[in-house]
Specification:
With 259 residues, the protein is an alpha/beta fold. It contains 6 helices and 16 strands. It has 3 domains: 37 residues, no CATH class; 140 residues, 3-Layer(aba) Sandwich (Molybdenum Cofactor Biosythetic Enzyme, Chain A); 68 residues, MoeA, C-terminal, domain IV (Beta-clip), CATH 2.40.340. The strands form 4 sheets. It has a 6-stranded mixed beta sheet, sandwiched between helices. The chain has a 5-stranded mixed barrel with strand order 10-13-12-14-16.
Length: 259
Amino acid sequence: AQGADIQAGQSVLARGDVLTASRLGAIAAMGFTEVEVFARPRVAILSTGNEIIAPGEPLAPGQLYDVNRYTLTAVVGDHGGVPVPYGTAPDTLAELETAVEACLAEDLVVLSGGSSVGERDLILDVVAARGDVHFHGIAVKPGKPTLFGSINGKPVFGMSGYPTSCLINAYVLVVPVLRRMAHLPPYEPRQVSARLARRVSSVAGRHQFLTVRVADGLAHPAFKGSGDITSMSQADGFVEIPTSVESVEEGTMVEVILF
């Protein structure tokens, strides 16, 4: 019957509703071909370092393939953003400044590879000279040297160049900011309970994100090192170990936050 499903004057969607498949169907059922939406935030992704080269190029001694560009691109796309890769910037102040200036054409900037205590890590200098550094260095493992600042009102993240550190902190720090900018609800990852397969130690005073693989009700630690991407690719999620805990015994029930 006419009006049996949607009646005249009935509110079908509200501002901020995420356009799922069924909601797009409701829009079509009312005869609309267009609706006004929030633009997806564009996210500049820039890797830094003389040793970083693009996959597909011949790998010379001392060089590394650009892992972070691809992991960050995937995370941004999964959480409402439009990833805009900007390639790689060498470790010179002038060239990094030029690259960051170009990145500021986007809504959010994510840099990786130069936020550390090393002599040649220049992201801190560039952000401090151009804008404000809100924090540099956080009490977490992995990802201690992470930086967050703003330039011309635009948020800028400086992530560790180590792939596992970069990716973990992208989930923990970048995703909440990105989803807020994209007008998406907070991310609520699935969690499962499992018993820890073996005893693990944690660094005192640092909040640890321990990557684990879940099998047969057990959480098997998968973390090898901050520079090993298999610490993530062979893991199902991570366990948070608070700063006050220095070890977790085998058999302890833990909550695994799934990727």
